[in-house]
Amino acid sequence: MIEMYKEWYDARHEYAKEWKKKTGGKVLGYFCTYVPEEILYAAGVLPVRILGSHETQNLTEPHIFAMFCPFCRDCLAQGLEGRYSYLDGIMIAQSCLHVRQAYTSWDLHIPTEFSYYLPMPHHVQSPHATAFLRGEYELFIKKVERWTGRKITDKDLQRGIDIMNRSRNLMKAVYETRKKEDVPMTGLEAMQMVVSSQMTEKAEHARITEGVLNELEGRSRGKEKATRVMLLGSENDDVKFIEMVESLDAVIVHDDHCTGTRYFWDTVEANGDPLTSIAQRYIDRLPCPTKDWPERRRVERILQFVKEWNVAGAIIIQQKFCDPHEIDIPAIRTALEDAGVKVLFLEFDVTVPVGQFKIRVEAFLEMLSGDDLF
Amino acid sequence: MAEEQKKTEYWRWTESRWTNPDIDWKQGGIVSAGVDVGSVSTQAVIMVDGQLYCSSSMRTGSDSPESANSAMKWALEGTGLTTDKIQATVGTGYGRVNVPFATKAITEIACHARGGNFIYGPQVRTILDMGGQDCKAIRCDEKGKVTAFLMNDKCAAGTGRGMEVFADLLGVHINDVGKMSLQVDTEPPPVSSTCVVFAKSEASGLLRQGWPKEKVLAAYCSAMAHRVVTLLERIGVEKEFAITGGIAKNIGIVNRLSKELNVTPLKSDLDPQIAGAIGGALFAKVLFEKKGK
What we know:
The structure holds 2 protein chains of 2 kinds. Chain A is an alpha/beta fold. Chain A has helices at residues 3-10, 12-23, 37-42, 70-80, 97-109, 129-148, 154-177, 187-197, 202-217, 239-247, 261-264, 274-284, 297-308, 323-338, 354-368, and strands at residues 27-30, 46-49, 89-93, 114-118, 227-233, 250-256, 313-319, 342-348. The mean pLDDT of chain B is 91. At the A-B interface, helix 15 of A face helix 3, strand 9 and helix 9 of B.
């Protein structure tokens, strides 16, 4: 069953087109994981995340500065290539300037019937943040209702919350299995599980994940002796890189990525009003560095993961030109090293120089391995 | 025609081989080897019971396995020793997985730390490996085990290849580049870009302006040293400090580097270019011993 994730990941566009044909529903492409999918599920809309394809291109040169991150350019390129032509709408929740540029440029050049900019507050640590976001959600809901011609009730919102929470809890249960000494799944499979959940209908994805949980019980990958590694960074669905790391004597057991834990780790806690509950979830979730100040709350969570998943080494993957992540790196590196976890830092572009990264990763693993050779 | 072409190969550094006259391999126990197939040069080292017995250093060809074979063959030349007598071999360097007769491949980062420890002694804590196509700042413990490392990014600036390009441009033999770069009364400002291609165009401009070769070389060596210093400063230089790799033989870089860092690198009579292969041979010895147990 686990191979379903890869199938979905590889055929993301075919899946969405098929879903449209089957249901007659609307598909919305979103740019950042701060978009409240609960509301979209409540509206009967299928949210799919817009991601890049990791191919070199020059289509975006006239539209985005070359010193903006490779990820935002790769995303826009997909739109300009016409690969998302089936989308009925697009939206973004305010994240960083770079990906917002991808959104605004997409909006300008690839017209869709619905486009929405959700002003997600950066200062999530403000006592007013939840109330502000709830207010923004009300405006957003009105726009969505006008678009779909369908009222969104509290019951709908509750359904949206249930769908999202079920998916999150199942994926967390899968991550729990990675605590085992004989980690039953690869880091690539875990990444593809999370990313495919961003591209498929959540209830369908959850059914597969239930099966995967059973499958994982008796599964062994025979890598008990391998070095336990955690990946950290912004967005990472770099298949080639992850494959290369796991082709060595390493096993990826956890991550801090928005194509990983930052996306799904936190659930919506019901506290009466569904809209407030949703807003509270996005305010309190594992933060993206654009929102993790003045206090760095992410560091504490990372250290907790490291401890519980018994991580020996951390690889920080930095998207070139991603300033918000860059500014967090010294703090994260120090915290990890103080906790006895060695850190390898790598700067990523759209394509990965596998050979050059391989020697760094190999040397990193040699450094972490015992004194066998001395 | 062929002779004329040979004259213009200023980049061609001297290939060499060496045998330790004090060792007779027939008396020894473990014969281990390390082969460092770099992007520019290949070295083979054979050790007898952890003592340096013979070595070779030559240019890497287009085919990694062939380069490894030739370096090995040359190192063994005249020793009476044959490959079948070698009990374990470690392949390292850019072509580490392509060493046909290797027991194991280990990164050049680990091998240079181990080799640096052998050449310069256990007091070495920081090693700068200036190779043909990349540059590594390595911190290690008293056993020569890596504790931290940093590599330059995807560009050949500050590397041996860059130096070869300059030797060619100025028509100065690569072995003389370092010495010549010190023959200036005052140090010129460094070339502003350390990208090899850009630096080359900048240097052509300086030559046209009438700068003597010595001054242009000084400007390039100083830019290169500065670039490496920033790499070292990111990782922190703890004493003792040593340089390995081909550039360690370039006094123009080494002097400027020591001045900027305010640290004198350790000296040795051994060739710093074979450090990686030495590390490989030492690891090979341990691999063989462990296997026997």
